[in-house]
């Protein structure tokens, strides 16, 4: 009787495991991981953290700093035998070479069945210069499937051994390699399109090398919109003739510290004799603090086995320096491109300023004016006269001497001399020539002052553009040399030169 009970218990375990496997899409195709993503539908093509190593490998390069994640799930609570699953993942971003990652996923069905999946991930954004929003990811992985040994009994219910003859030749374990690929594309601000193809090699997992026992290829495409307030995702998957549709939503509260998730997933499976539909709602929450993310998800299959649902708790941790800027929106790409254009424009403006200032400083001075600072030439004075001269005669004598000496006089002395002559003889005789000369000199001074102000503006623009101090000093010295002989205010140049010391 005891042996019969053992035999019956073993058969029940096997039947239960087979039933569970049918509910879990043959398991090796990939159960959902990460409480956050389980709560968002269990199948996502756009991710933003370390769980990208398990979902779309193209999204691993979105990770900003190193991150690890671990979790444990008790599945189908209410069954007599414990079904559990564990996950560990790690993501490593780099500045130049893309991002790397790995994960280990294990499913344990009591002592009768276990799956181990080991995967390595590589991801790179902007792989094509003409498609800067496109990212690519590849993920080679290894499946290790192990079947537990079953106690064998004879027809009388007597115990024989724990070595099933089915395992005698091929053993009770199978290891195979597979490959996944993924793509993501930034469609618009906050909108990302994801595509992943799992098990493109369709690895054979049969202990007895049956050709039709393979992990089927799964294609998943989805669209996500995630921002600082909320997020939405819609994903559609195909595996053979089965179809899975999931829709999820999230909301961020308390300055993104608290996040709430919810989703509904619809699965349509087609068997030889019938089709089965499964609806699974999921909810979850996540709390973020000091680089740590703690999340919980509850998933309940409305149709199927009568259980208490699946409960998942996961934790992830960010550490190390931030090596990438967040690029979860196309607006950031546009901002970077805009900054690059501004820098190029700024460099061009600096070169244009230098060119204009150089032309201005090389501009020839009026031929009749020599603004260089020279020893001051004394203005012509009236010579003692033997006889008393009229105002007209004295004016003409002084004006003649001025015209003979003006080429040797500085610009400032010329203005002072003409102003003195006009002041002395105004109202006594005709001083038209002197007044005309003063007008001409005044116009020249105003023109030079206008050029000086233009040169000053060019200099200030160069200064604001962070041009090297050595170049700024050279510009100031050239400005001072050209304009200080015109009696203009160049004190600001001396102040600037002191600041550049």
How many helical stretches?
9
Main sheet makeup: 14 strands, antiparallel, barrel
Distance between the termini: 103 Å
Shape-level CATH architecture of the largest domain = Beta Barrel
Annotated CATH homologous superfamily of the largest domain:
Outer membrane protein transport protein (OMPP1/FadL/TodX)
**What proportion of the residues is helical, as a percent range?**
25-40%
- According to CATH, the fold-level topology of the largest domain is Porin
The mean pLDDT is: 81
Low-confidence stretches: 1-26
What is the molecular shape? Answer: rod-shaped
Radius of gyration based on Cα positions: 44 Å
Total beta strand runs:
16
Count of the domains? 2
Write the SSE topology.
Elements: H1 2-23, H2 35-39, E1 66-75, E2 83-93, E3 99-109, E4 113-125, E5 134-147, E6 152-153, E7 159-161, H3 166-170, E8 173-188, E9 191-198, E10 218-226, E11 230-239, E12 242-253, E13 258-270, E14 275-289, E15 292-299, E16 310-319, H4 330-362, H5 391-405, H6 411-425, H7 432-464, H8 469-483, H9 491-499
Antiparallel strand pairs: 1-2, 1-16, 2-3, 3-4, 4-5, 5-8, 6-7, 8-9, 9-10, 10-11, 11-12, 12-13, 13-14, 14-15, 15-16
Helix pairs in contact: 4-7, 5-6, 6-7, 7-8
């Amino acid at each position: 009787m005891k042996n019969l009970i053992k035999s019956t218990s073993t058969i029940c375990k096997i039947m239960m495991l087979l039933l569970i496997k049918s509910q879990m899409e043959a398991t090796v195709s990939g159960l959902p991981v990460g409480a956050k993503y389980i709560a968002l539908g269990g199948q996502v093509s756009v991710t933003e953290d370390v769980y990208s190593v398990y979902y779309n490998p193209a999204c691993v390069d979105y990770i900003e700093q190193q991150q690890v994640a671990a979790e444990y799930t008790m599945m189908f609570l209410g069954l007599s035998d414990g079904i559990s699953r564990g996950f560990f993942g790690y993501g490593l971003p780099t500045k130049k070479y893309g991002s790397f990652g790995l994960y280990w996923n294990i499913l344990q069905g009591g002592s009768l069945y276990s799956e181990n999946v080991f995967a390595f991930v590589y991801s790179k954004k902007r792989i094509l210069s003409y498609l800067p929003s496109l990212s690519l990811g590849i993920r080679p992985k290894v499946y290790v499937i192990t079947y537990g040994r079953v106690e064998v009994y004879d027809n009388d219910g007597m115990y024989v051994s724990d070595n099933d003859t089915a395992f005698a030749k091929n053993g009770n374990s199978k290891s195979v390699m597979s490959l996944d690929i993924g793509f993501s594309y930034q469609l618009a601000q906050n909108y990302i399109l994801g595509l992943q193809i799992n098990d493109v090699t369709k690895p054979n997992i049969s202990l007895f090398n049956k050709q039709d026992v393979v992990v089927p290829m799964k294609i998943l495409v989805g669209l996500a919109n995630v921002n600082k307030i909320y997020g939405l995702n819609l994903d559609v998957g195909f595996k053979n003739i089965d179809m899975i549709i999931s829709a999820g939503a999230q909301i961020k509260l308390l300055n993104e510290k608290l996040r709430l998730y919810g989703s509904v997933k619809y699965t349509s499976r087609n068997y030889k004799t019938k089709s089965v539909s499964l609806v699974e709602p999921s909810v979850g929450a996540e709390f973020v603090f000091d680089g740590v993310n703690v999340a919980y998800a509850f998933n309940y299959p409305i149709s199927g086995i009568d259980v208490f649902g699946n409960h998942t708790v996961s934790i992830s941790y960010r550490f190390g320096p931030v090596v990438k800027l967040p690029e979860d929106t196309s607006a950031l790409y546009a901002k970077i491109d805009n900054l690059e254009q501004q820098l190029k424009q700024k460099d061009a403006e600096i070169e244009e300023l230098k060119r204009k200032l150089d032309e201005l400083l090389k501009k020839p001075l009026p031929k009749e004016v020599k603004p260089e600072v020279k020893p001051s030439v004394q203005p012509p004075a009236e010579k003692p006269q033997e006889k008393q001269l009229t105002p007209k005669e004295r004016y003409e004598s002084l004006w003649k001497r001025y015209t003979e000496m003006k080429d040797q006089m500085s610009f400032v002395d010329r203005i002072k001399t003409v102003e003195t002559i006009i002041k002395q003889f105004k109202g006594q005789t005709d001083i038209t020539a002197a007044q005309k000369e003063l007008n001409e000199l005044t116009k020249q001074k105003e023109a030079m002052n206008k050029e000086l102000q233009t040169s000053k503006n060019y200099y200030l623009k160069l200064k604001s553009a962070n041009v090297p101090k050595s170049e700024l000093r050279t510009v100031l010295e050239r400005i001072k040399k050209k304009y200080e002989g015109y009696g203009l205010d160049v004190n600001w140049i001396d102040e600037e030169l002191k600041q550049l010391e």
